[in-house]
């Protein structure tokens, strides 16, 4: 396996992207930078600088095969969140914010998550289409095992898409962004382009190292949240393999290493999270409209506008994922139909 750092490209809107990842089988595939094949793929696919897009075709073995979902005419629109503020969580206010979220879990039974991390440093030395399923999973495993989480975004919401207003009577609604201290820019491996990109989005790596949340302490709280109902009605991601892998890593502790194969990883995720999992990118595959693309691209096609913050800020991205999920389910799927696209989707 070859190691390297993320390469940065740009789409037509000027948004930066990292090395291209494509799909030709049921798990993960990654095209090497600096090749003609890479350039060809890059012209047609868009990938976040800090979060690789990992696509799948077909279901994992333990999940029911998806069915063709009939189009349902738009009868309701996803509720606009109005004024939203991001509650930034550090070591000094962790306990206060944890207790606050605890008090909300019974009323806000859905959760959307997003992670930001220092790019990817492991990539294959051969074209993506030649990789086996085992090799594809191994790439994600190698990156998650070696790299530390920088941010976790969390949006809790109810079945109508409402967010917590914390007593403001709807005037302001809130999402959360947790900043972690484990990543040390001076000594830990990272993709330099990803670091510069995160800095441009406001991440202060000196502050996260000094004032950030201890991941082990957060893992304890996360386990309690999951037992207490976090995402009881559904845990929502966008292209969520890395999100789920980092959640598992925090639940089981920083020294935990991901399982040796994807089938065991699926079982571990189910055991750790224990919820219905929705991947918005996978749900988009079952919609009658063309909803291909990365987070920003799909949001634009759904006419969903970012309510707060900027792309690749974890709190903002978790909220955008929530908004897209609500728009899709209200526009395209009846209640019974939504269950056919639920499940672990490492895509």
Automatic annotation (TrEMBL):
It comes from the Eukaryota. It catalyses: Exonucleolytic cleavage of poly(A) to 5'-AMP. Pfam families: CAF1. One of its GO terms (cellular component) is CCR4-NOT complex. Transmembrane segments: none annotated. Its cofactor is a divalent metal cation. Its EC number is 3.1.13.4. Its main location: cytoplasm. Belongs to the CAF1 family. Ubiquitous transcription factor required for a diverse set of processes. It is a component of the CCR4 complex involved in the control of gene expression. PANTHER family: CCR4-NOT TRANSCRIPTION COMPLEX SUBUNIT. Component of the CCR4-NOT complex, at least composed of CRR4 and CAF1 proteins. This is poly(A)-specific ribonuclease.
